[in-house]
Amino acid sequence: MILIVRALGRSCIDAIFALGRFVLFALATLSHVFRPPFYFREFFSALLNVGYLSLPVVGLTALFTGAALALQIYSGGSRFNAPEVVPQIVAIGMVRELGPVLVGLMIAARVTSSIAAEMATMKVTEQIDALVTLSTAPMKYLVMPRVLAGLMAGPVLVAVADSIGIFGGFIVATQTLSFNPANYIINTMNFLTTADILSSMAKGMAFGTIATLMGCYYGLNSGHGAQGVGVATKASVQAAAVLILAANFLLTAVFFTA
Amino acid sequence: MITFENIFKSFGHNHVLRGVNLKVERGESMVIIGGSGTGKSVLIKTVLGLIQPDSGQILVDGQDITQVKRDAFLSRFGMLFQGGALFDSMPVWQNVAFRLQRGALKRPMAEAREIAIEKLRRVGLAPDVADRFPAELSGGMQKRVGLARAIAAEPEIIFFDEPTTGLDPIMSGVINELIREIVVEMGVTAVTITHDMTSVDTIADKVAMLHRGTIQWCGAHTDMAQSGDPHVDQFVNGHAEGPIETLR
After folding, report:
1. What is the pLDDT of residue A258?
2. A15 — pLDDT class (breaks 50, 70, 90)
3. Which of A27, B26, B85, B176 has its CA 20 to 30 A from that of A254?
4. What is the percent of chain A where pLDDT is above 70?
5. Which candidate from B70, B71, B85 shows the least CB-CB separation from A130?
6. Which member of A37, A39, A135 has the closest CB to residue B74?
7. Would you state the pLDDT for residue A215?
8. Contact assignment for A135 to B70 by CB distance below 8 Å
9. In this structure, is residue A31 part of a structural domain?
10. Are A133 and B77 in contact (CB < 8 Å)?
11. Residue in B with minimal Cα distance to A138
12. With 70 as the cut, is the pLDDT of residue B248 above it?
């Protein structure tokens, strides 16, 4: 019994230490946002990677999800004689929840993993040490540009995902479910509020930041060798995905239960 | 002058450095020898702040390194890493000119590139290597690029961490000669970590042997053969039997 309590206690202490280390890392990153030098080339390169190059996967995911959502809502709505709610529910579902969450998870899969693997490899091959000896702070040169890129690209990707998701629903509804295209668009536009869109953008910012921050944190704190790189990559994606979903719940609670 | 005063460093239960005391004079080429895992690399990394010692003091020109401005301090150093540690996301010339493209030593891009090509030429690489990526180079070429990067900003002190590891004997000889030439030509203070006795013979003015976390022996390279220290004799002659325990 004592052994079980001891193991439980050790796990709790380890978890608290890990949380503390992550919070310190996040605060250190934040402190670098306001202090020169700023590496603009690294920032634009990160913006290209996090934002522009994520567009295909985000767009395709949103398109199919929006299309499937339209079919599900039509089918579900028909059970209580309300199949006409498809445009409104697709719009609210994509903008409030699915758009941001899909973007968050896609960035976690695509960007978090690549950042963690890249930084962990840099650590294993002493490139991080080399940066320090060349008078360049890794937090400033590697972490800050990527996190800032996540913060800025997140809302743009979410806007794209929301639009394409709604478009996916529109295509299915008008081509296979006999909805009138003009009415579909009017219903969508009338139903969405500014608060819905702003909450979507805010989630995009939060998820983009979480995804890039987790990649950097696990990459810079990786273990040795190829195994260390693998473990860091896996752990970063898991942690980013869970944190994104947890943050989504919290943000939804803040925005829509008040 | 670099002075290590009673440096201790442990990683968990592994006590790597147990009171290292060592002086490296200005303009001197010191080679630190010792078996694998004896803390040679840890020792030089403590100077650069890559690893924090648990206790002890490191002085560079009489100044405690914990009291200096980091950027200005680091700009006095160059380092050749064991595996090269070249940034694989950028071409060779940008690796070499890294320090010249940002920070206090920033130059216009064309000038930085010109200096990089000149440094590459100094280490025996043709200008066409400048636009290639590190992954496209052989191990020997990567070491040369690392060397070019270490000397690009004309540092006062250069650290060489296992400069010949992974190279064939001929290329090892070439790199050793190159290091010796550069150290003499630039008049820098050099600290080399190695267990390659050919490197010691080519590069060293002085030799220090690290064993069990302390400096076992330190003296002029010319005195090493007559050191009278059984640890040094065993290491230099590569004997399996002796005071240094070996796993078989």
Report:
1. 63
2. confident
3. A27
4. 100
5. B85
6. A135
7. 96
8. yes
9. no
10. yes
11. B50
12. no
Q: What was the pLDDT predicted at A69?
A: 95
Contacts of A37 in chain B (CB under 8 A): 102-103
Residue A57 or A78, more confident: A57
Amino acid (1-letter code) at residue B181: E
Q: What is the mean pLDDT of chain A?
A: 93
Q: How far is A38 from chain B (nearest CA, A)?
A: 10
A124 part of a folded domain: yes
Alpha-helix runs per DSSP H in chain A: 2-33, 40-50, 55-79, 86-92, 99-107, 113-124, 127-133, 138, 144-175, 181-191, 194-220, 225-256
Query: What CA–CA distance (Å, rounded) separates A84 from A186?
Result: 13
Angle at A19 between CA A103 and CA B10, to 5 degrees: 125
Tell which B residues from 64 to 123 touch A, by Cβ distance under 8 Å: 70-71, 74-75, 77-79, 81-83, 85-88, 98-99, 102-104
Contact A133 B88 (CB under 8 A): no
Instruction: Check residue A84 and give its pLDDT.
Output: 85
Res A117: pLDDT: 96
Contact yes or no for A126 and B70 at CB 8 A: no
Compute the half-sphere exposure of residue A10: CA atoms within 13 Å on the CB side of its CA. Answer: 6
How far is B109 from B126, CA to CA, in rounded Å?
20
Residue that is written with structure tokens 């147990």 in the block = B18
- Average pLDDT of span B33-41: 88
Q: Which helix (H) or strand (E) holds B212?
A: none
Which residues of chain B are within 8 Å of residue A136 when distances are taken between CB atoms? 98, 102-103
Find the mean pLDDT for residues B87-115: 91
Contacts of B70 in chain A (CB under 8 A): 135
Structure tokens at A210: 């979480």
Contact A99, A156 (CB under 8 A): no
pTM assigned to the model: 0.86
* Stretch B20-47: mean pLDDT: 92
- pLDDT tens per residue, range A19-42: 899 889 988 888 888 888 889 999
Summarize chain B as % helix, strand, coil (round to 5): 40, 25, 35
- Domain assignment present for residue A209? The answer is yes
Residue in chain A closest to B151 (alpha carbons) equals A134
> Residue A125's closest chain B neighbor by CA?
B85
Residue A237 structural domain = 42-256
B161 contacts B45 by C-beta, under 8 angstroms: no
Mean confidence (pLDDT) of chain B = 90
- How many domains does chain A divide into? 1
What is the pLDDT at residue B247?
57
